[in-house]
Amino acid sequence: MAKVVQITAENFETEVMQASETRAVAVLFSSAEYPDCAPYSQLLGQLSTSMDFTLGVVSCDERENMRLIQAFRVQSVPEVHVVDKGEIGDVIQGVLSEADLKKRLEKFFV
Q1: Is this model's pTM higher than 0.70 or not?
Q2: CA–CA separation, 78 vs 71, rounded Å?
């Protein structure tokens, strides 16, 4: 079932790790400070509906999310980590075209 969830250190274990045991979860790291993040977030939200997957959004602007950012070794934003069965299945760095993004995600959500 498609849904978009704001991920924090408090709900990470349930919304990402536990959920990924039954179905992969795409985790988007983004920041309001970078203009590419908002449209990319919208595109991922649309794809989560059409491809029926959970999109977890981690705001890099929130100080309390620093542990997650460091744990995932986020290099730049936007950055998408696909978590499948508790493991990182793919890391998508930077902005991809809709077609390329969809192709990368189809490995997990078709």
Answers
A1: yes
A2: 16
